[in-house]
Design a protein that fits this description.
Number of strands: 0
Strand content: under 5%
Number of helices: 14
Largest sheet: none
Low-confidence stretches: 3-7, 11-17, 19-24, 26-36, 138-150
Helix content: 40-55%
Order of helices and strands: HHHHHHHHHHHHHH
Shape: elongated
Distance between the termini: 52 Å
Structural class: mainly alpha
Radius of gyration: 21 Å
């Protein structure tokens, strides 16, 4: 489809492919043929994906290649980001989708991949998307928990929720993925903000489950801050924006949710407010991750990213 870019990929893929195939060859020598799970290392996943994409040493399976590329991309493999973008740009084994192609080319370009930056000229990224496969996998659940509608809230942190708050937590788990948010992070924010009380109101007039002030509510089109669905939609939209603004740095996004992005930018990190530092510690304890996937099309990055401080 793309004559010029095809040459770009062919040239780049030879070096990329040689490196990946060396990794794959090493993996196949030590791994049993019927391994139940692919290795977790992103470079090995990318090597497997390349082999399945081209049928080198394994039956050609481009759908499997796309899944493996995405898992590798989620782990930070830049070559996998570019190759998956190429598959979506050309409809190779997947439905052609310019928006998804632009997403993966964009991620690779941000990491310095010159060919990905060139490919962005040939795809239409006007429709914001966030691939579901780029979200972290949900924690493993027992068979009993898996049968429940909200297995994530059966863990130690939320096991003692009364029925009314449990229903709120289930609504959070259901709504979070619509905004590309890991439900565990959304649960942690709601727990810290309102303790799952939709009628919560602070002395600063922050209201509802995610404690939206009037300015934030207006910014994200929230009509009724005490309405559960309306409040969640606005709070999760704001959290998605913050994650993009701080390039997935959870500590900065969470600090900004509490103190505002202006304060975080001004202090070039977590502000020296006792309330904000305690808030960040609580959310990070509940969520347990330092980084979260983000959609770079949602917001331009903060100028402090790369030199911000998480020091306590």
């Amino acid at each position: 489809m793309f004559a010029g870019p095809l040459e770009l990929r062919s040239a780049g893929a030879r070096a990329f492919g040689a490196r990946r195939m060396l990794v794959l060859a090493a993996m196949l020598l030590v791994a049993p043929a019927a391994a139940a799970e692919p290795p977790a290392r992103p470079d090995v996943l990318a090597a497997q994906a390349l082999a399945y994409e081209h049928g080198e040493g394994v039956p050609k399976d481009q759908r499997k290649a796309a899944a493996l590329y995405c898992e590798a991309a989620r782990g930070g493999d830049v070559g996998a980001m570019f190759n998956l973008g190429w598959m979506y740009a050309n409809g190779r084994g997947v439905t052609r989708d310019d928006a998804l192609a632009a997403f993966f080319f964009g991620r690779a370009a941000r990491e310095g991949h010159a060919q990905a930056r060139e490919m962005l000229k040939f795809v239409d990224g006007g429709r914001p998307v966030y691939p579901e496969c780029m979200l972290p996998p949900a924690p493993a659940a027992t068979a009993e928990a898996a049968a429940k509608p909200a297995a994530l809230i059966d863990g130690e942190a939320y096991a003692d929720l009364p029925p009314d708050k449990r229903r709120i937590a289930e609504a959070v788990v259901k709504a979070a993925p619509q905004f590309g948010i890991d439900p565990r992070l959304a649960l942690a924010i709601v727990a810290a903000e309102s303790n799952f009380r939709p009628d919560a109101r602070s002395d600063k007039d922050a209201r509802g489950l995610m404690q939206l002030i009037s300015a934030t509510a207006a910014r994200f089109n929230v009509m009724n801050r005490f309405d559960i669905e309306d409040n969640l939609q606005g709070g999760l939209a704001y959290l998605r924006w913050l994650l993009a603004y701080y390039q997935g740095r959870v500590s900065l996004a969470v600090a900004a949710y509490n103190a505002g992005e202006g304060a975080v930018d001004r202090y070039k990190g977590i502000p020296p407010y006792a309330e904000t530092r305690a808030y960040v510690q609580r959310v990070q304890h509940l969520f347990g991750e330092e980084w979260h996937p983000y959609d770079p099309s949602v917001a331009d990055s903060s100028t402090i990213v790369g030199r911000a401080s998480d020091d306590e």
